[in-house]
Amino acid sequence: MARLLSEQELLRRESLNKLKGLGIDPFPAAEYQVSHYAKDLSTQYSEGVDGFENVCIAGRLMTKRIMGKASFAVLTDSTGDLQIYVNRDEVCPGEDKAMYNDVFKKLLDIGDFVGVRGHMFVTQTGEISLHVKELTVLSKSLRPLPVVKTDGDGNVYDALTDPEIRYRQRYVDLIVNPRVKDIFRKRNRVISTMRRVFDEAGYMEVETPILQPIPGGAAARPFITHHNALDVPLYLRVANELYLKRLIVGGFEGVYEFAKDFRNEGMDKTHNPEFTVMEIYVAYKDYHWMMRFVENLLEDVALAVNATTDAVIGANTVSFKAPYARVPILDAIKKHTGLDLAGKSEHDVREAAKSIGLEVDDSMGKGKLIDEIFGEKCEEHYIQPTYITDYPVEMSPLCKKHRDNPELTERFELMVNGKEVANAYSELNDPIDQLERFEDQLKLSAKGDDEAMFIDQDFIRALEYGMPPTSGLGIGIDRLTMMLTNQESIQEVLFFPQMRPEKFESVAGPEEFQAIGVPKDWSAVMVQAGFHTVASLLEQKPAGLHQKLNGYRKKNKLDLPALQLELVESWFNA
RNA sequence: GAUCUCUUAGCUCAGCUGGUAGAGCAAUACACUUUUAAUGUAUGGGUCCAGGGUUCGAACCCCUGAGGGAUCACCA
Questions:
Q1: C1’ B29 / CA A401, Å
Q2: For residues A389 and A387, what is the distance between their CA atoms, to the nearest angstrom?
Q3: Which nucleotide is the nearest neighbour of A271, by CA and C1'?
Q4: CA(A496)–C1'(B11) in Å?
Q5: What is the spatial distance between Cα A202 and Cα A317, in angstroms, rounded to a whole number?
C-alpha cells in the first residue's frame, strides 16, 4: 500500500530527512516541560511586568513571516495563539547558524510542533510576543495544512469550509477553525453543569446496557447486532428508560445517565444515527416537580455556557430564565387550529386532521394523529421555552394517566425555538396498566406502525415488585447544544458525525514494479510519473512507455540511468 | 427515497459561445533585523470527481456512477 504524494508532501518528507541529517530527531520522545500556556502569556503579560524573563511554551507553528535575520511566527497551543520572535543571532549565538538558517527558515513548516524558551516583550506594533532564545523541534507535520488567515478587522481568508473535509477530517477543522473548538467546549459545559446539578441534588450517575435483548423505552427502529457466544440477536439501545426505572425499583432515590442512543432512521441536519440523551429518574416526584427542576437546570446550563440566560438562535433570542409557560397540548391545538379535540373519538380526530389538510392513514391511532396535528400546526409557534403538557394516553405508553382525566397522561415536552428538547413524565408504575399499554402497542404494531414498542416482560416483573411514584426526564444533549451554540446542524455539535465510508485510493508500491523487472531506482518514481498501478503501466505500448519515462526523467532532471527499450519491453513479458 | 445543485492546484475560487486551464494564499529560490492577510522578484505545482457518449476538438454539451450541500418526504 502506498499513497500518491503531492509535491508539498514530498518536500516535507525531504525536510524530515534533512532534520535527521542534522542530528535532530523530528519525533523526539522526551517530555517537554512548559512554564506557561499561550493564553496565560497574552493575558497576563504587558510591558514592564516582571516574571516573564524566562518562559517556555509549546505548540503548533501556524504562520511564519521571515525577514532575513529575524522572523515572526505564530505558535498555537491548546489555549490559543502567541506570536514568537526568532532572531538568528539569539537562537544561534555561536558561528553555527544552522538552527536558524536551515532548521527554522527552511525545514520547519506550518503545522510542525515546536517548543520555545525566551522572554516576553511587546513589539513596535504593540503585539505581545515571545523573544526566542532556544527552539526545540517536537514533532514534524508531513501534510500541508490549509492556511487560514485573519486580518486586523477579523476578516477570514481562505477558511476551510468544505463540510466533507471538515467532518471527515475533524482534526483539521479543529486546528484551522478555532470557533469549532469553542462549540465543543460549550457542549462539555452543558454536560458538566448538568452533572454538577444532579450530583449536588444527591442523584447518582449510572451506566446501563447499550446491547439490549429488547430495544425498549422509545418508539424507534433499532440497529440489530448478534452475539456469537450466546447466539442471540441483540439490539443497540434506542433508550435507557426501562433500565433506569428498574434501578428506581431497586431503591435508588435518583439515577441519571448520559447515554448514547442509536436509531436506525434517516439522517439529516437534526438526526444522527447515534446521539446523546440525558435521562434522569427521581423517586417520589411528579411531572410538576420536574418542570420546576428542568427550568432551573436549563437556566443554570445556559448561564454556565454563555454567561447569560439569553440564547441567540438564528433570528430569535430565547430566554432560558425560569419559569417557563405551561400549555396543555389540546389547548395549544385549539389556539392554533381552532379545533377542540377534548373527549373526541379517534374517528373525529382523524376527520379533524383531514379538515386542516393533513395526510392521514388508517395505521395512525388517535395519539399519533394528535401528535401530527401539533407537529404540523403548533410546534413552530413555541419559540420561548414552553412546556406542552397532558398528552393523550395513546402516544405515551410509559406515562402515568392524568390524575384528573384518564384520557390524558402526566407528560410534558419542552419546546424551545419551535423544537422539542426535553420529554418528561410522571412515570407509570402500575404494572397492570403498563402491561395493557404494551398490549395496545402490539395492536398498533399489527396495524402497521413499525415503531410501536415491544413488550418487556422483565420490566413488567420489576414493576410488580413495586416502584415508588417517580418522575423521569430525557433531554437531547445534541439539540440543546445546538441551541446554546446557535448551530443549525447536528453535525456541527458532534465531533465525528456519521458519514458514508470514505474510499481511499492507493497506488502500487515500488516492490510491485520491481516484480515485473523495473530497476529499483526507477520503481520509486513510477507512481510520481503517473503510473499508479502495474496494470496502468502495462496498458501502454512498450515504445510509447519508453519515451514517456525517459521524457519524465529528462523533465525532472532525475539522477537515474536512462531506460533501454529492450528493458521496457521485457516488463511486458514478465 | 425524490427534486435541485455542486465537485477545477494543499486552501478559497475564476474559467465567456466547446479550442486540452488561471488568480490569491500556501510551496520553492533569492533579498530583507520588530512584522502581522509582512513585502519585493523569480519559479514550480493540475487524472479539471470517475466512466462512457457527441464532436475535428470537451473542465464546458449529453448519459451513467460516486461523493458533498440544499429543499421535501420519512423519522419523536
A1: 80
A2: 6
A3: B75
A4: 22
A5: 33
Q: What is the ipTM of this complex?
A: 0.86
Residue A398 and residue A240 in contact, taking contact as beta carbons nearer than 8 Å: no
Q: Is A209 in contact with A244 (CB distance < 8 Å)?
A: no
Q: Helices marked H in A30-136 — which ranges?
A: 38-44, 88-91, 98
Q: Which has more pLDDT, A338 or A285?
A: A285
Which nucleotide is the nearest neighbour of A501, by CA and C1'? B67
With contact defined as beta carbons under 8 Å apart, do A444 and A453 qualify?
A: no
Q: Whose C1' is closest to the CA of A536: which nucleotide?
A: B47
pLDDT at A390: 92
- Determine if residue A405 is left, alpha or beta; phi over 0 gives left, psi from -120 to 50 gives alpha, anything else beta: beta
Report how far residue A542's alpha carbon sits from residue A536's, in angstroms, rounded to the nearest whole number: 12
By CB neighbour count within 10 A (0-12 exposed, 13-18 middle, 19+ buried), where does A322 fall? Answer: middle
d(CA A264, CA A433): 29
Three cell numbers written together for A119: 522572554
* Gap between the Cα atoms of A445 and A438, Å rounded: 10
Nucleotide nearest to A476 in CA–C1' terms:
B76
Q: Which nucleotides of B are covered by protein (CB under 7 A)?
A: 1, 9-13, 24-29, 31-39, 44-47, 66-76
Q: Which three cell numbers stand for residue A40?
A: 496565560
Distance A158 CA to B24 C1' (A): 9
pLDDT-derived band at A558, boundaries 50, 70, 90 = low
For nucleotide B72, the protein residue with its alpha carbon nearest to C1' is: A268
Contact A332, A340 (CB under 8 A): no
Q: Cell numbers of A374, please?
A: 401539533
Q: What is the mean pLDDT of chain A?
A: 88
Minimum-distance residue to B74 (CA–C1'): A266
Residue A122's H or E segment, with its range, is strand A113-122
- DSSP conformation letters of A134-147: EEEEEE---SPPP-
Inter-residue contact A149 to A155 (CB < 8 Å):
no
C-alpha distance across the termini of chain A, in Å: 22
CA of A530 to C1' of B58 (A): 22
Q: Which residues pair with A86 in a beta bridge?
A: A71, A132
Decide the pairing of beta strands A128-139 and A80-87: parallel
pLDDT digits (tens, 9 = 90+) for A494-511: 999 988 877 666 677 777
Q: Are A453 and A440 in contact (CB under 8 A)?
A: no
Q: Which residues contact A191 (CB under 8 A, 6 or more apart)?
A: A258, A278, A477
Inter-CA distances, A51 with A42, A48, A77, A126, A436, Å: 14, 10, 21, 19, 73
Three-state DSSP class for residue A205: strand
A440 pLDDT more than 90? no
Which nucleotide's C1' atom has the smallest distance to the CA of A110? B26
Phi, psi of A56 (to 5 degrees): -145, 125
More confident residue, A344 or A444: A344
pLDDT recorded at residue A441:
82
